[in-house]
Amino acid sequence: MNDILFYSVQLYIDSLNQLSYVEDEDVLNHMEDYAEKSGFPIVNRSVGRFLYLITKLKNPKLIVEIGSGYGYSAYWFAKAIDSGKVVLTDYKPENLEKAKEYLGKSGLLEKVEFRVGNGVEIAKEYKDVDIFFFDHEKSKYLDTVLQLKTNLKSGGLIIADNTLWHGKVLQENPDNQTKKIKEFNEYMFSSKEFFTTLIPLRDGVLIALKL
Ligand SMILES: C[S@@+](CC[C@H](N)C(=O)[O-])C[C@H]1O[C@@H](n2cnc3c(N)ncnc32)[C@H](O)[C@@H]1O
What does pTM read for this prediction? Predict the structure, then answer.
C-alpha cells in the first residue's frame, strides 16, 4: 500500500469515529484539541476506541500504563474497565495533574491511581497485571518487556503504541531508535512466551498475549 493510500485509510477510519456516540465528547474534544495545539503526542481516537474494546473484551482488574501523559489513553481504559483500576505513570507531575482534572470531569477518579516517576520501576511493584500499555521512550520497549513480563498474568496483554514508527520500520538503514523498535517487534513475534500481532492503526499498535 503506498503512503497516500495508507493515510487515506486512516482518515477514513477516523471519520467513522465521528458517527459513534461517546458520553464524554466535550472532555475528549478538549483533550484532543490540547494535543493538537501543544503538539503533545497522544494516541488518537481510533486507537483509544481500540483500547476500550480490548478492555471490554478482557474484563481486566489491573492495567498499568508506562507513559500516561495527561491521561488520554487512560481515559479509554478507565471508561471501559468495570471493576478494577488503571495505574497512570509519568515522569512529569504536571502531566498527571492535568490527567486528574480531565478524568475527574469524566467521573473516573475512582478507577485510577496516579504515580509520578519512572513507570518501568513503578510497574514492578504490581503483580498479576492484566494489561501493560507501553507509550514511553520507544527505544526502551524491549528492555521494558524483559523487566516486566513476569509481572504480567498468563493471559495478560502487552499493548505497545508507535510500533510502525511513522513507517520508519520499513527503511533499509533505519536510525537507532527505529532499530530498537524493530528489535522489540521482532522479539515479541519470535518469543514463545507471547502470541503477538501488530494492528496498523495510526502509528501501529502491537498487541501480545502472554501464553
Ligand atoms: C506519548 S506520551 C503518552 C501519551 C498517552 N499515553 C496518551 O496517549 O494519552 C509519553 C509520556 O510518557 C512520559 N514518559 C516517558 N518515559 C517515561 C517513563 N519511563 N516513565 C514514566 N513516564 C514516561 C513522558 O513524560 C510523556 O508524558
Answer: 0.97
What does the pLDDT read at residue 1? Answer: 58
Provide the residue range defining the domain that includes 39.
3-210
102 C-beta closer than 6 A to ligand 1: no
Q: How confident is the model at residue 7 (pLDDT cuts 50, 70, 90)?
A: confident
Query: Ligand 1: distance of its center to the CA of 5 in Å?
Result: 30
Q: Is 48 in the pocket of ligand 1 (CB under 6 A)?
A: no
The total of structural domains in the chain comes to 1
Cα distance between residue 161 and residue 46, in whole Å: 12
Backbone conformation region of residue 185, classed left if phi is above 0, alpha if psi is from -120 to 50, else beta: alpha
> Pocket of ligand 1, candidates 42, 76, 135: which has the most ligand atoms within 8 Å of its Cβ, to mutate?
135
CA distance linking residue 205 with residue 199, whole number of Å:
5
- Provide the CATH number for the domain around residue 65: 3.40.50.150
DSSP assignments along 40-62, one per residue? -----HHHHHHHHHHHHHH--SE
